[in-house]
């Protein structure tokens, strides 16, 4: 029996829609990362991008547990000495709520060129509106 390996030309891409209102950040990011990689498909191949597109709406209404709103920190560095900036999760959700989810999903993908390509298939919007209506996105089912 031969091992099946997916070819880039024979992959059918789907569009999925997720409403992040009231969902837990880490659990949602895990589901999105698996969908972007294509791990939920039977023809998953690790070295080929077999994943689907994911649209996330209401990213500003994401839920976190515990004291993470005040204790979880986001860091960025300008590249200059003394250029380390930090924000709490609460401040980051107020300023750029889409980047909170994008960074969580990015951390769950492998660190290579393929993951950067897969991350471009993630579309995140802070509010309930999105411009991807013509793609007819289906709701992404969460496993219970």
Output mean pLDDT.
Answer: 94
| Shape type | globular
Topology order in helix (H) and strand (E) letters: EHEHEEHHHEE
CATH third-level topology: Ribosomal Protein L13p, Chain: A
Q: How much is the radius of gyration in Å? A: 17 Å
| Count of the separate structural domains | 1
Q: Which second-level CATH architecture applies?
A: Alpha-Beta Complex
The helix content, as a percent range, equals 25-40%
Q: Termini, distance in Å?
A: 34 Å
Strand content: 15-25%
CATH H-tier superfamily? Ribosomal protein L13
Low-confidence parts: none
The biggest sheet amounts to: 4 strands, parallel
Oligomer state equals single chain
Number of strands: 6
CATH C-level class: Alpha Beta
- SS-based class: alpha/beta
Q: Which strand order does the major sheet show?
A: 5-2-1-6
Put simply, the count of helices is 5
Structure described in brief:
Helices cover 29% and strands 17% of the residues. The protein is of the alpha/beta class and 144 residues long.
Describe the structure.
Helices cover 29% and strands 17% of the residues. The chain has 144 residues and is α/β, with parallel strands linked by helices. The chain has a single domain, classed as Ribosomal protein L13 (Ribosomal Protein L13p, Chain: A). The chain has a 4-stranded parallel β-sheet with strand order 5-2-1-6, with helices on one face. It has a two-stranded antiparallel sheet with strand order 3-4. α1 links the parallel β1 and β2 (53-57). α1 (25-37) crosses α4 (97-107) and α3 (89-95) packs across α4. It starts with 14 loop residues before the first strand and ends in a 5-residue tail after the last strand. The mean pLDDT is 94.
């Amino acid at each position: 029996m031969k091992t099946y390996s997916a070819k880039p030309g024979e992959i059918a891409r789907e569009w999925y829609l997720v409403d992040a209102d009231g969902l837990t950040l880490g659990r949602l990011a895990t589901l999105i990362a698996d969908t972007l990689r294509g791990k939920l498909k039977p023809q998953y191949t690790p070295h080929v991008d077999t994943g689907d597109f994911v649209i996330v709406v209401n990213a500003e209404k994401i839920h976190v547990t515990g004291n993470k709103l005040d204790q979880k920190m986001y860091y960025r560095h300008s590249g200059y000495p003394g250029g380390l900036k930090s924000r709490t999760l609460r401040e980051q959700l107020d300023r750029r709520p889409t980047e909170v989810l994008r960074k969580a999903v990015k951390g769950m993908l492998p660190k290579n060129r393929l993951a950067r390509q897969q991350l471009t298939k993630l579309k995140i919007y802070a509010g309930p509106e999105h411009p991807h209506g013509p793609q007819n996105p289906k709701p992404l089912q969460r496993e219970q």
